[in-house]
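If you are new to this repository, start here. Below is one unmodified record pulled from the training split, so you can see the exact layout before writing a loader.
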Amino acid sequence: MTNKKLRVGFDLDGVLLYNPARIVRPIIVFLKKIFLKKEADKFHYPKTRLQKFVWLLFHKVVFGPALGYDQLKQMLKTKKIKAYIITGRNESLEDDFNRWIKKLDAKKYFSGCYFNNNNEQPYLFKERMISKLKLDLYIEDNWDIVSYLNSKAKVYWIYNILDRGKKYPNKFPSLNSVITKIKKLTE
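And here is the target side for that same chain:
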């Protein structure tokens, strides 16, 4: 490794935060391809008050920081990497995003925290932010986003138990295992 500090982006839900509801994502994607063919390649954004409420509930299932977050904070204290939070959460989840940023004490450890306040498609927002921040690596848990970003950036995938059979060169079962890999890159 050179003396250049590794620049790493982290998704929030499913990467830094443990949300067990993410397990159903492959099922939702499958059903969407069958019943909502026009929406198959897009992420839905809630528009009505009811949809926004349901969206918020889905994100309230978060149990807390993912296992490995404490190790990540220790790594960030040593300043071996420069880290950013980049989440596809849309504008309707801004308050909950800010609450988690505060709970994680993220502004103390991360060089920036970004959410998708203009409701872009999450993969386009993340692609733009990866380019803007000149990231060397991005950590993501959503297979559709990983598939899109893979040709544009180096992406480590924290896979869903239902997606574990998919072939991908940089796939990991948890944030813990990703942090172990990043530590090796910085030695």
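Two things worth knowing about this chain: The chain has one domain: 6-186. The longest strand covers residues 81-90.
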